[in-house]
């Protein structure tokens, strides 16, 4: 929503959305939300990001196709490296997942993010996550925001 609103219409961008849970992926891919869930989305996006339809339990807000077609959903286990993915990514968001990993798995996943990001690209983690021992490969810009060196 942010990219569509803030980049020129001609910009060519895509999102690779991954999770280990096929259920989570199916839900995300469906892109249906209740009005209460969609209320958490900033107002400036609400009118253009959703189309309202009727569901069995009331109104359903469906993410519009123009947004859905930008997102590719794939199952990925971040605990198994190397990832079967190639770069160049501008940004990796990995929020509140590395907290479940042991230090070795966490370091291996962060090394993969480094491989996939273009130089100067950003890694965003959860607000309470700190990546220790990556100072030679990432610059910490602000809490939870790292820049690939
Ligand atoms: C606490 S949720 C965080 C969801 C979202 N990133 C956020 O910040 O709201 C953790 C997510 O990580 C996924 N997950 C757990 N272990 C994983 C793994 N090894 N590889 C990929 N995803 C994993 C779970 O299925 C779940 O969707």
In short:
With 149 residues, the protein is α/β, with parallel strands linked by helices. It is 29% helix and 32% strand. It has one domain: Vaccinia Virus protein VP39 (Rossmann fold, 3-Layer(aba) Sandwich), CATH 3.40.50.150.
Global Rg: 17 Å
CATH architectural category: 3-Layer(aba) Sandwich
Shape: globular
User: If helices are DSSP runs of H or I spanning 4 or more residues, what is the number of helices?
Assistant: 6
The spatial strand order of the largest sheet comes to 6-7-9-8
Overall strand count: 9
Domain tally: 1
**What's the CATH class, please?**
Alpha Beta
Termini distance? 28 Å
Instruction: List each distinct ligand once.
Output: S-adenosylmethionine
CATH topology: Rossmann fold
Main sheet characteristics: 4 strands, mixed
Please tag this protein with its features.
149 residues, alpha/beta, Rossmann fold, three-stranded antiparallel sheet, binds S-adenosylmethionine
Give an overview of the whole structure:
The chain is α/β, with parallel strands linked by helices and 149 residues long. It has one domain (2-148): Vaccinia Virus protein VP39 (Rossmann fold). Helix content is 29%, strand content 32%. It contains six helices and nine strands. The chain has helices spanning 2-6, 22-30, 35-38, 43-49, 65-68, 103-116; strands at 15-19, 32-33, 50-55, 58-63, 71-75, 89-94, 117-125, 138-142, 145-148. The chain has a four-stranded mixed beta sheet. The protein has a three-stranded antiparallel beta sheet with strand order 2-4-3. A two-stranded parallel ribbon has the order 1-5. β6, α6 and β7 form a beta-alpha-beta unit. The radius of gyration is 17 Å and the shape is globular. The two termini are 28 Å apart. The mean pLDDT is 94. The chain binds S-adenosylmethionine. S-adenosylmethionine (SAM) is lined by residues 19-21, 24, 76-79, 95-97, 100, 126.
